[in-house]
């Protein structure tokens, strides 16, 4: 498939052994990691150690998306249809509910919300690795003071051993496109380079990621958790000193602390479902019109503790959803940010 974008530079193909099941995997040319089709484990492709500044983000083709308003969003939901033991129930509904919230609650124009799902008929709207790269570029391209940007991903996440020395836990996080078994996942280094570094003063990005191993998938320098009973900032800046922040703007990631156990959701097709992390986020926003970041996270945490159950979201999409499923294994919400701020005072707004 070729939607007309500029492709990243290509290198020779490589064959690697899956680090979990030892199956042989052929990595696409230039891929830094590859996902095993048998066990879904992600394995680093040795020798592919391009720094983020060397990566080429594909240019979106003309007409890739219509609007260029001050509020723009990229919403991605992937079911991985047909992939054995990996098919998810929920990501498509996550996207539909998020779009309804953004357009009805926060005033995002419909033509400024770009949706990529594996149910789309337009090949440029399928969540392939190349299309997701182009969508990220479209989101931040030409951003200016006053822009409010949203990036949502609902699907599979992964971890792979870090080779650059910029991860305190020694692991890179990644999101898995629908073709990750052929083209490989998108690592946090590239996501940071694509949608964090370009943010200029006065621009704010919110990323909502419902996937296992998604806690620090934007590689932001500061992490806030409540494992001690209160919300506390932790310095996550890389030991190497490499900059992982913005160009003056603000980036916030709302994700989850996961137990690392991604699993398929076995629910009959008659029951529409959505992900637990996304559900808790939208429900918290609906219940608190004037929430601070702290109250939003606390509300999300309380909803997650209630466990899977009825959805009870507003709007025509939410009313059709009957079940909530924790396909990402999220145990509690967490927030990471490009800068430290007072969560109890800062109002949440997209």
From TrEMBL:
<dbReference type="InterPro" id="IPR050452">
    <property type="entry name" value="Metacaspase"/>
</dbReference>
<feature type="domain" description="Peptidase C14 caspase">
    <location>
        <begin position="70"/>
        <end position="308"/>
    </location>
</feature>
<dbReference type="InterPro" id="IPR011600">
    <property type="entry name" value="Pept_C14_caspase"/>
</dbReference>
<dbReference type="Pfam" id="PF00656">
    <property type="entry name" value="Peptidase_C14"/>
</dbReference>
<dbReference type="GO" id="GO:0006508">
    <property type="term" value="P:proteolysis"/>
</dbReference>
<comment type="similarity">
    <text>Belongs to the peptidase C14B family.</text>
</comment>
<protein>
    <recommendedName>
        <fullName>Peptidase C14 caspase domain-containing protein</fullName>
    </recommendedName>
</protein>
<dbReference type="GO" id="GO:0004197">
    <property type="term" value="F:cysteine-type endopeptidase activity"/>
</dbReference>
<dbReference type="GO" id="GO:0005737">
    <property type="term" value="C:cytoplasm"/>
</dbReference>
């Amino acid at each position: 498939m070729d939607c007309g974008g500029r492709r990243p530079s290509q290198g020779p193909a490589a064959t690697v052994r899956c680090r979990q099941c030892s199956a042989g995997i052929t990595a696409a040319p230039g891929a830094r990691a590859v996902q095993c089709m048998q066990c879904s484990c992600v394995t680093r492709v040795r020798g592919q150690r391009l720094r983020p500044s060397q990566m080429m983000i594909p240019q979106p083709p003309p007409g890739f998306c219509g609007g260029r308003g001050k509020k723009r969003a990229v919403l991605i939901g992937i079911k991985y249809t047909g992939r054995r033991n990996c098919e998810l129930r929920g990501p498509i509904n996550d996207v539909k509910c998020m779009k309804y919230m953004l357009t009805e609650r926060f005033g995002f124009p419909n033509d400024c919300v770009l949706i990529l799902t594996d149910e789309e008929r337009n090949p440029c709207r399928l969540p392939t690795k190349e299309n997701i790269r182009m969508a990220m570029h479209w989101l931040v391209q030409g951003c200016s003071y006053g822009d409010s940007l949203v990036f949502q991903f609902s699907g599979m996440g992964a971890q792979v051993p870090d080779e650059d020395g910029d991860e305190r836990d020694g692991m890179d996080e990644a999101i898995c496109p629908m073709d990750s078994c052929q083209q490989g996942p998108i690592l946090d280094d590239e996501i940071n380079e694509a949608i964090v570094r370009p943010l200029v003063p006065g621009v704010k990005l919110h990323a909502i990621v419902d996937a296992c191993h998604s806690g620090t998938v934007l590689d932001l320098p500061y992490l806030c958790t409540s494992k001690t009973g209160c919300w506390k900032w932790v310095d996550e800046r890389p030991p190497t000193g490499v900059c992982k922040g913005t160009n003056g703007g603000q980036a916030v990631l709302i994700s989850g602390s996961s137990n690392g156990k991604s699993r398929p959701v076995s629910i009959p097709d008659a029951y529409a479902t959505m992900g637990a992390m996304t559900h808790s986020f939208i429900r918290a926003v609906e219940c608190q019109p004037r929430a601070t970041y702290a109250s939003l996270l606390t509300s999300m945490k309380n909803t997650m503790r209630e466990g899977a159950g009825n959805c009870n979201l507003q709007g025509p999409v939410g009313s059709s959803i009957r079940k909530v499923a924790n396909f990402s294994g999220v145990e509690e919400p967490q927030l990471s940010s490009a800068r430290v701020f007072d969560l109890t005072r800062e109002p949440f707004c997209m």
